[in-house]
Amino acid sequence: MPPSETGTIIITGANGSCALSFVSHLITDYPNLTLLATVRNASPSDPNTARLAEIISTSSRASIESLDLSSLSKVRTFADKTAQRVEKGEIPPIKAIVCNAFTMSLKEQVYTEDGFERTFQVNHLSHYLLVLKLNPKLSGITATAMDPGGMVDSRAHKIQKPIIRFAFSLIVLLLPITKHFTDELRSSAQSGRELVELAVGDKYQGEKGYFMGARREKEDAICMDAEKRDVLWKACWEWAGIKKKETALEQ
């Protein structure tokens, strides 16, 4: 995608470690794109959202939007309002949806108001609903999965044991050396840059499949199992309560 091309990019979990780098590079390298940077807590009192607001303050085409992926009804509301904005010409057509938000529960299972295990709903089911409701058509699109690698400076490591956090802090200092041996240990900045290019860069237009950073990798066998994919698709369709008229499948 040339830097002059327009379009709307949506990213979930926009105040995360990788996402902050993504946002920074997107508005710098592709300034004509419109960015909807979605977060669960859009209040500036959240320090991570405040950092996001600081980054996008240099762009008139970027905005912070509230999107709570632990609520299917809120995902629907966001998708419907966004679709209306596109139809009214308030924002350009959607070019890419970056499903970046995630959560994890290490000590016990946590459930959402919809009755689903929170990790599953936030990481997958709500993104499934969001994408299906916002895709103007299902032909001619591609789906790409990116493993951001071991981001040793990620904020997610704050929940780790002190000794693990200390080990990661040492690895951060060694990244200039380790990059000559492996690209799986990396900074959030590197992963964010590569995510931008996978989402909108000319080099990756039409590409699909699984990537380790910017490097194409073979998918796991279970991902290539058509029968299991079909089972998951149908289950998510039912759990999300989707109707054909809500999606491009109606067309």
Order of helices and strands: EHEHEHEHEEHEHEEH
N-C termini distance:
27 Å
CATH topology (fold) name:
Rossmann fold
Question: What is the CATH homologous superfamily assignment?
Answer: NAD(P)-binding Rossmann-like Domain
What is the total tally of β strands?
Answer: 9
Mean pLDDT: 86
**What is the number of helical segments per DSSP (H or I, 4+ residues)?**
7
Q: Give the overall silhouette.
A: globular
Instruction: Name the poorly predicted regions.
Output: none
Strand arrangement, major sheet: 3-2-1-4
Number of domains: 1
Largest sheet: 4 strands, parallel
Proportion of beta-strand residues: 5-15%
Structural class of the secondary structure composition? alpha/beta
Amount of helix: 25-40%
What is the CATH domain class? Alpha Beta
Assign the CATH architecture. 3-Layer(aba) Sandwich
Secondary structure elements and their pairing?
Blueprint: E1 7-11, H1 17-29, E2 33-39, H2 47-56, E3 62-66, H3 72-87, E4 94-98, H4 118-134, E5 144-147, E6 150-151, H5 162-178, E7 185-186, H6 188-200, E8 209-212, E9 215-217, H7 226-239
Parallel strand pairs: 1-2, 1-4, 2-3, 5-8, 6-7
Antiparallel strand pairs: 8-9
Helix pairs in contact: 1-2, 1-6, 3-4
Features:
251 residues; four-stranded parallel beta sheet; NAD(P)-bd_dom_sf; three-stranded mixed beta sheet; globular; Rossmann fold; alpha/beta; Ketoreductase (KR) domain-containing protein
